[in-house]
Amino acid sequence: MTTPFVPDDFIVPDGLIHDHFILQMLEPSITELDYQAVMSSRVNLRTIFAENDEWPADDMTLADNLNDLITHEKEFMARAAFAYTVLNTDKTKCIGCIYIEPSNRDNTDTEVYYWLSNDKQHLFNEFEETLKSWLKEK
Questions:
Q1: What is the pLDDT of residues 76-107, one digit of tens each?
Q2: Is 2 a residue whose pLDDT tops 70?
Q3: Which of 31, 33, 61, 65 is the most exposed place for a label (fewest CB within 10 A)?
């Protein structure tokens, strides 16, 4: 996945600042925060990307997560896929992620996956509506 899937003149959004969360590029500097969110939500995450998905494994390590974030950053910089972390407003906790990537499905250019950590499900509807509006604007 190294081929850009957006036109050269497309301006990739840096992120979003909202009253209850911040979106920014998913990259290695937040590995520990991301790892905590992923591992605390792993049962729910296994249902988001594919049926019977095994990611994240119960024994996934911090180093495994770092490698994932390095990959996401490389894809973002190559304009091949765009992953954003969802942080709380003071950036001390990762509360979810958004993945925007080329689709392998017919008649669909892009797929968007997103999740919020188990302890932030009360924000889900507001988050989802905000995300839909943000994507339409971009």
A1: 999 999 999 999 999 999 999 999 999 888 88
A2: no
A3: 61
For residues 31-55, average pLDDT: 91
| Residue whose C-alpha is closest to residue 85's, from 35, 123, 119 | 35
Question: Which string of DSSP letters, residue by residue, matches the chain?
Answer: --S--S-TT-----EEE-SS-EEEE--GGGHHHHHHHHHHTHHHHTTTSSTT--PSPTT--HHHHHHHHHHHHHHHHTTS-EEEEEE-TTSS-EEEEEEEEE--STT-SEEEEEEE-GGGGGGHHHHHHHHHHHHHH-
pTM, two decimals, is 0.93
- The identity of residue 118, as a single letter, is N
